[in-house]
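Here is this case:
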Amino acid sequence: MRTLRKLRPLRTRLLLLLAVVGPGIITANVDNDAGGITTYSVAGAHYGYALLWMLALVALALIIIQEMSARLGIVTGKGLADLIRESLGVRATAVIIGIVVFANLANTVSEFAGVAASMEIFGVSKYISVPLAAVGVWLLIVKGNYKSVERIFLVASAIYLAYVLSGIMANPPWGTVLTAFVTPSFHFEVGYVTIFVTVIGTTIAPWMQFYQQASIVDKGLKVGDIGYERIDVIVGSLFAVLVAAFITIACAATIFASGQRIETAQDAALALGPLAGQYAAGLFALGLLNASVFSAAILPLSTAYVVCEAFGWESGVSRDWKDAPIFFWVYTALIVLGAGIILFPLKSLVETMLASQTLNGVLLPIILVTMLRLINDKRLMGQHVNGRVFNLISWVMVSVLILLTVILVITSFFPGWLGG
C-alpha cells in the first residue's frame, strides 16, 4: 500500500508534465529551420569540430530566454505583443509589428526554399513540392485545433532525430568529437568569426518569444504549471542543440575531412551521399524537408498571433474563421506569399533575406530588453519576478547576444570590416 501511495504522486506528476509539454519543445526545435541547418552544416564542413564547444553557450542562451518567455505567458495570461503594447504604446508597437511581419515573411520564403531544395534531392520539382507543402500547412492550421496541431508539431520535432542518425552513420572519430566539446578555441579569421557569430545569432530570433508565449496562452497553462513548463523549455532547448551538434558532426566527419566546400544545406545532403552513404544523405535531406515544412507552418502562425495580439483582435488555432478572421487571413497571406515568391523568384530575393536578418538584429535588443523589464515588474509578475542571480545572468546573456547580433548585421553588409 505504501508503495502504491508513493507511485501515485509520481504517476500524477508525469501525467501533468505530459499535459503541459509542447510549447518549449516546439519553439526550440523550429529554431533549427532551413537557415539554421545551413549554418550548422557550413560550420561543420568549413571548420570541422572547432565550433562544437560553443553549443553549450547556445543551449544556455536558449534556456534562459525561453524560460523567461514561458514565465511571462503563464503568469500574465497574455502574449508578448499584447504586453509590449501595454508597455510601449500603440505607435511603437505598430512599428515593431511591421518589422516582425516583414522579417517573418522573408524567413517564410526561406523555409519554402528549403522545401524545394530538399525535394529536388529526391527528384521532385519545386512546382510540385512547394504548392503541396503550402496547402498542407495551411489546412493543418485552418482546419485543426490546438491539441491536434501541437501533436503533429511534436511528431515533427521527433523527426529531427534523422540528423542524429545521419551523424552516427558518418562514423566520426568520437574521441576527437568529445575533446572538441570541452576544448574552447577561437581564431581571429574573418570566416571563422562570421560563422561563430552566425551560430549564436541563429539561436535567438524575435519570433520565438512571440510564438512560445502565444502558444502557452492558447494552451491555457496556469501558474501551477510553471515547473512543468520549465522542464519543457529545458528539454526542448537541449534536444535542439543536440540536433545542431549532430548536423555539425555529420558535415565535419565527411565534407570537412574530404576538403570540400559547401554553401547550403542542400549541398551538404548531396555531398554526404558519396562520403557517408546514401542512407546518411537521405536522412539529412529528410531532416531538411521536415525542418522546412515545420517552420513554414510556425513562422506564419507566429506572425498571425503577433498581429492579432498587438491590436486586440481574436486569435487562436482552436477558433474558426468566423471568430478570428484576421488571424487566419494573416496566416493565409504569409503562406501564399512565401510559397509564391519561390515559384516566381524575384531578383531581389537574396537582398530580402539579408534585410530580414538585419531587421531581426534591429528588433532583438528591443524585444529582449522589454522582456527583462516585464519579467522584473512586480505589479505584473508578483513573486515570479527574476531573482538577483538570474537577473545578473540574464543581463549578461542578453548583452552578449545583442553585441553578437550587431556584429552579425555589420558583417552581413560589410563582409570586410574585420579586415582580411
User: Anything to note?
Assistant: Confidence is low (pLDDT under 50) at residues 1-8. The two ends are 73 Å apart (CA to CA). The chain has 19 helices and no strands.
